[in-house]
Design a protein that fits this description.
alpha/beta; 2 domains; elongated; six-stranded parallel beta sheet; three-stranded mixed beta sheet; single chain; Rossmann fold; 299 residues; N-(1-d-carboxylethyl)-l-norvaline Dehydrogenase, domain 2
């Protein structure tokens, strides 16, 4: 059985890694041109085809993955000039792998369905290294028939795949996940800065908190930066964290659900971004909180 033809839009760090995995597993791959030529040229050199725009790419693909940062960017890929809608074929599946606003996801699903295509949301967990190895986590939202049609491709891309409900469910779950994660990171950052400010040794803080139920991956990521200045274990930017928590707050408003904690997390992330730290990794929030409080966490 021949493999489905794959189109891919968004060749950033994780998109590049996902494409390398697909090429290594024998999928016919077409990527959309981008001004950042290095990853495009690398993939073309390994056998991928290049399309000038999303509409041209849609003519060459059975399944199209979109891996861009914001819902506005997803909408531009789908409905913009020379977007997917200009070339999409009936029966094509489009998979949004970003962390998007569920309201936008519903609109884009309707726009594609009007052309005989279907949208699936499949936001990602894990790192570019996992992506290149085909070991991502995916939270998938979409109709049963569409998800089953694309499932063999997803199995070649991810170790853990969770079909969590109809279209939009993956994005909703990912926003809840990221709200909780970024709130945890914010709380740890304040705790670490407060410890130093009040004369509590960070090593002792770590030992005591890690001995109980507060220990977690996020706790270790943030405390490693607080103690050693190493934020590389969580390569997720403050700007992206702020975007995701903002989408979570929109979702809460649309659902008429009060959100008591998210505004505080969003405020901290916004202050850090305004301070020029938007591209810094989330574990560095402890340094920002310390700076605002007039204390350095490390020598």
């Amino acid at each position: 059985m021949s493999k489905q033809r794959i189109g891919f839009v968004g060749i950033g760090l994780i998109g590049r890694a996902m494409c390398l995995n697909l090429i290594n597993k024998g999928y016919p791959l077409t990527v959309m041109a981008h001004r950042n030529r290095a990853p495009i040229d690398e993939l073309v050199g390994k056998g991928a085809q290049e399309a000038a725009n999303a509409g041209a790419l849609a003519l060459e693909a059975d399944v199209i993955f979109i891996c861009v940062t914001t819902s506005d960017a997803v909408e531009a890929v789908i409905t913009g000039e020379a977007g997917l809608l200009s070339g999409i074929q009936p029966g094509t599946l489009v998979v949004d792998c970003g962390t998007s606003d569920p309201t936008s996801t519903a609109r884009m699903g309707a726009a594609l369905e009007a052309k005989g295509a279907k949208l699936i949301d499949a936001p990602l967990g894990r790192t570019p290294l996992h992506a290149e190895q085909g070991l991502l986590n995916m939270m998938v939202g979409g109709g049963e028939d569409e998800v089953q049609k694309v499932w063999p491709v997803l199995e070649d891309m991810a170790e853990n795949i969770f079909h969590v409900g109809p279209l939009g469910s993956g994005h909703k779950l990912k926003l809840i996940n990221n709200f909780f994660a970024m709130t945890t990171a914010s709380a740890i950052s304040e705790a670490a800065a407060m410890a130093v400010k009040t004369g509590v040794d960070l090593e002792n803080l770590y030992k005591v908190m890690a001995a109980g139920p507060l220990k977690s991956g996020m706790f270790d990521f943030c405390m490693t930066n607080a103690m050693k200045g190493d934020a590389s274990n969580l390569q997720f930017s403050v700007a992206n964290a702020r975007k995701d928590v903002g989408y979570y707050m929109r979702m809460a408003e649309a659902a008429d659900m009060p959100s008591f904690i998210a505004p505080a997390t969003y405020h901290l992330l916004s202050m850090a971004k305004a301070d020029g730290r938007g591209e810094d990794y989330v574990p560095t929030l402890c340094d920002f909180v310390g700076d605002v409080g007039g204390v350095k966490l490390r020598d």
